[in-house]
Amino acid sequence: MRLHALIAAAALAVATPVWATAPMGDDGLHKPDWLRDTFKDMSEDLAEANDEGKRMLVIFEQRGCIYCKKMHEEVFPDPDIAALLNDRYFVVQMNLFGDVEVTDFDGTTLTEKEMARRWGVMFTPTMMFMPESAPADGTAAQAAVATMPGAFGTGTTHSLLTWILEKGYESDEHFQKYLARKLQEGQ
Asked: Using omega within 30 degrees of 0 as the cis cutoff, is the peptide bond preceding 125 cis?
């Protein structure tokens, strides 16, 4: 009987994709390999992202966030999404209630939690996609080409990451229309 249980377990393991969950940091947030450990200076981070030919993404999370957990355990590990995040994005993580200093594009320095208030972030996860060039003045929230609060499935997340890379925000096709078209096309 034990042999049958081992065979069944092995078959289930082969049939079910196993994605490694990112380790947790001391702040209680997931720390996947694609996250960048920076000084959280928006202008410097954007310049570094541009030097690498990547798009800058700021993601706000918080300890104990069930939606953040879903993204890190079910969505971000998807091979296509992980590849996009690794290869095409420069991702900076912010803690909604954190005390690490952040310097905004206009030079204002506040803690992560104060910057979240300044930028109007009140839900986790929230993804803010930065422009390719630094704004002359203003905040990251004003400069962001798109802001997406909430947790979404792999299809929506992949489409969002692709829409940003394709500069869909510069077109007349709103993300919701883009997503509907992609779903209709079976992508």
From this structure: yes
Stated as kind and residue range, the H or E segment containing 154 is helix 154-165
Instruction: Read off the pLDDT of residues 48-76 as tens digits, 9 standing for 90 and up.
Output: 999 999 999 999 999 999 999 999 999 99
Rounded Cα distance, 138 and 120, in Å:
14
Longest dimension (CA), the chain: 70
Task: State the residue range of the domain holding 140.
Answer: 22-152
Name which of 45, 21, 22, 19 is nearest 32 in CA terms: 22
Residue 101's H or E segment, with its range, is strand 101-103
Residue 128: count of CB within 10 angstroms of its CB? 22
Q: Tell me, what DSSP letter sits at residue 132?
A: S
Domain count, the chain: 1
CATH of the domain at 128: 3.40.30.10
Q: Is the pLDDT of residue 16 over 50?
A: no
pTM of the model: 0.86
